[in-house]
Amino acid sequence: MAVLKVLEIMSNSDKSWEDATSKGIKKASESVKNIRSAFVQSQSVTVKDGQVDEYRVTLKVSFEVN
């Protein structure tokens, strides 16, 4: 039986929500081992001068506890 823990993280990108998600997972994997999955809980943007300035995601990252 595997025991999983869930960590909530926030990440951002100036390119896309997908890029923000990838950056968040990459950074989390530097200190969290055994990441199994990630759930995008929410997406948002910041706007500057009528244009999308930054994409933001809130992720629920699941990892196995040994």
From TrEMBL:
Pfam families associated with the record: Dodecin (PF07311)
Gene3D superfamilies: Flavin-binding protein dodecin
Database matches in InterPro entries: Dodecin, Dodecin-like, Dodecin-like_sf
Membrane-spanning residues: none
PANTHER family per the UniProt record, alphabetical: CALCIUM DODECIN
Protein name: Dodecin family protein
